């Protein structure tokens, strides 16, 4: 076939587009990114969400037409200690697989907080996201200017008295142990060397992340954040009958793999139930309380040592329309239907709490703001702390904000005081500077701390990990 000049130019353009497509992906905000552009403009993960924002009828990547991952046989992490689980939570595991604590860590969740080996223990934690998104790795490690390393993140956290990280995961990536492009985590030279000429998979990355934090005496809480990587947060723990058991199956894999990793302390079962989710309704299709119990039982059959973090919702049967909740914040129905796990002292209620930089609420404009807030927080979740009849501890799973405008600064200072006054442990959202409307603990260069946020949190000290 004779190729004209115009045809040749068209073919050349198509070839160039195909080459670019091979190095492109969508970031957490759904924008197309390339390896060249990512170093200049970081991907952004916008925070969310409250009852004031309409719930989408379908979530990208999470409707019933989504391809169902076929779970693969995932080998557990190697260990030299055979587990001996029982129903009391006193089995011999976990022990350190390669490095970390010389002391076996036995956590207990009691109404007045967490205990480690019988002594009161305070978590000062930070969320670190990315593994739930399109890249399938923690953000900021992709190489080039304005990036970081896991070792640098860990050192920043320990220097600022943090002792724990909440890692956000994608359920389908766990089930399929998805292949990961090593270029997306190119700053981690040790990992690059270990997998030179080999295929890197999702759980390989998670193994590595857990081990790096272990070397720095940092605890890890695993969180099933999204059903489908970069697919948004589903209202329920499933979106169709086909994926109803995805999260439970993912926890079987994770519990088996990390039960002997000394610094993995537990499971945050599902991120932010909302919308049609109920608590204590008895409807197996919507009752988050029933689903939580089933998942907890599944995990504890493998490792009874793990703490089980259960988040709230955005609605309840006891709602006050004048005081709406953010996604994950509403635990009001616990008062009439508390949880009771099969393993005692493992339950952690874990609400998510946000302020004006995430979504506006009428009570942020009350003339008594912020002195009106403690009563609202008590109403939404705070009543649980210290009350034995609810059967668990309380740890705030997410809180934060941009800390730029005066109303958000006022809110964060008020909530920090509430945490201090009530002796609560927490995980701040987030390490990542590309955290949308909350920004991060680091500036956009991924290395410079946000000194104003660090100062806000400086009065809190995480208990040293032995």
UniProtKB/TrEMBL annotation:
Q: Where is the composition biased (Low complexity)?
A: 64-85
Instruction: Locate the region Disordered.
Output: 39-104
Q: Which residues form the signal peptide?
A: 1-24
Q: Which residues form the Glycoside hydrolase family domain?
A: 125-434
Keywords for this protein: Carbohydrate metabolism, Cellulose degradation, Glycosidase, Hydrolase, Polysaccharide degradation, Signal
The alphabetized list of GO BP terms reads:
cellulose catabolic process
Where does the record place Polar residues bias? 86-104
Q: Which GO terms describe its molecular function?
A: hydrolase activity, hydrolyzing O-glycosyl compounds
What the entry lists under Gene3D superfamilies is as follows:
Glycosidases
Signal: is it a keyword of this entry?
yes
User: What Pfam family is a match, any one?
Assistant: Cellulase
Record-stated family: Belongs to the glycosyl hydrolase 5 (cellulase A) family.
Name of the protein described by the UniProt record: Glycoside hydrolase family 5 domain-containing protein
């Amino acid at each position: 076939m004779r190729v004209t000049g115009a045809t040749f130019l068209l073919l050349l353009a198509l070839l160039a587009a195909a080459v670019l497509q091979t190095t492109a992906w969508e970031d957490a905000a759904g924008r197309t990114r390339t390896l060249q552009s990512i170093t200049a403009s970081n991907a952004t993960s916008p925070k969310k969400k409250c009852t004031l924002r309409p719930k989408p009828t379908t979530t990208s990547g999470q409707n019933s037409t989504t391809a169902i991952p076929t779970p693969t046989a995932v080998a557990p992490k190697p260990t030299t200690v055979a587990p001996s689980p029982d129903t009391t939570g006193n089995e011999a595991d976990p022990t350190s697989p390669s490095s970390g604590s010389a002391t076996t860590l036995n956590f207990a969740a009691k109404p007045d907080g967490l205990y480690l080996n019988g002594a009161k223990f305070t978590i000062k934690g930070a969320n670190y996201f990315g593994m739930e998104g399109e890249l399938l790795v923690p953000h900021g490690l992709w190489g080039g200017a304005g990036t970081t390393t896991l070792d640098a993140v860990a050192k920043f956290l320990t220097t600022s008295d943090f002792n724990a990280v909440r890692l956000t995961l994608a359920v389908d990536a766990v089930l399929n142990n998805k292949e990961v492009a090593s270029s997306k985590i190119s700053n981690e030279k040790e990992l690059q060397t270990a997998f030179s000429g080999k295929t890197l998979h999702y759980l390989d990355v998670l193994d590595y992340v857990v081990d790096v934090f272990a070397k720095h005496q940092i605890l890890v809480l695993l969180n099933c954040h999204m059903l489908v990587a970069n697919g948004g947060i589903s209202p329920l723990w499933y979106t169709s009958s086909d994926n109803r058991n995805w999260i439970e199956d993912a926890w079987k894999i994770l519990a088996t793999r990390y039960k002997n990793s000394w610094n993995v302390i537990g499971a945050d079962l599902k991120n932010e139930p909302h919308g049609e989710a109920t608590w204590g309704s008895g409807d197996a299709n919507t009752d988050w309380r029933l689903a939580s119990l089933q998942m907890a039982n599944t995990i504890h059959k493998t490792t009874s040592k793990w703490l089980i973090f259960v988040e709230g919702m955005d609605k309840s049967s006891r709602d006050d329309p004048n005081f709406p909740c953010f996604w994950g914040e509403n635990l009001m129905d616990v008062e009439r239907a508390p949880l009771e796990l099969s393993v005692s002292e493992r339950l952690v209620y874990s609400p998510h709490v946000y302020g004006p930089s995430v979504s506006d609420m009428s009570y942020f404009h009350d003339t008594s703001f912020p002195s009106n807030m403690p009563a609202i927080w008590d109403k939404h979740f705070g009543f649980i702390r210290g009350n034995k009849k609810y059967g668990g501890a309380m740890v705030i799973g997410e809180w934060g904000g941009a800390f730029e405008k005066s109303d958000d600064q006022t809110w964060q200072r008020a909530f920090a005081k509430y945490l201090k006054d009530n002796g609560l442990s927490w995980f701040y959202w987030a390490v990542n500077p590309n955290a949308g409307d909350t920004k991060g603990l680091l500036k956009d260069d991924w290395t410079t701390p946000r000194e104003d946020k660090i100062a806000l949190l400086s009065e809190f000290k995480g208990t040293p990990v032995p």
